[in-house]
């Protein structure tokens, strides 16, 4: 029997988390079985339990990881309102709509996360609040709790717009919805709305 070092185990775990994140956002949590997830990672089903206690454990880990990745992306944008405008325009873009596996976990998985275990909901809540605080840091100073609720409302509006745009079979209507959603989000933020 071959024994792998700690670094190999960590790299394998990371590969499982990353491939599961893409698969969950593409096919949903319920639509992604362990054998599919492990196949995506190039591993056998038996290897799964060396890294996770259960699929629920994996889901909670993936949700937190996906939001941490999104938070890092938000932090990399320009500071202040200009950065907020960049974030909104990228989020409500045709590219994001057409690439769910590479995008926002909230837009792809929110309905399923709401039906997940308390541990997954807790992981989501803690991680989404870090993302929200990254957005709040770009808003003018004011009441921190009000700014947090405003940023959560912005995320909810953008995620809902993106979900609906993905569900529409009429491509032109979907494109128009994304454009309108962008204008609405920028108006909410009071940022420059020029294209």
TrEMBL record:
Keywords tagged on the record: DNA-binding, Transcription, Transcription regulation
UniProt entry tagged with the keyword Lyase: no
Domain HTH tetR-type: 10-70
DNA-binding region boundaries: 33-52
Domain of life: Bacteria
InterPro entries listed in its UniProt record: Homeodomain-like_sf, HTH_TetR, Tet_transcr_reg_TetR-rel_C_sf
Keyword DNA-binding applies: yes
Protein name per the record: TetR/AcrR family transcriptional regulator
Native organism: Streptomyces pratens
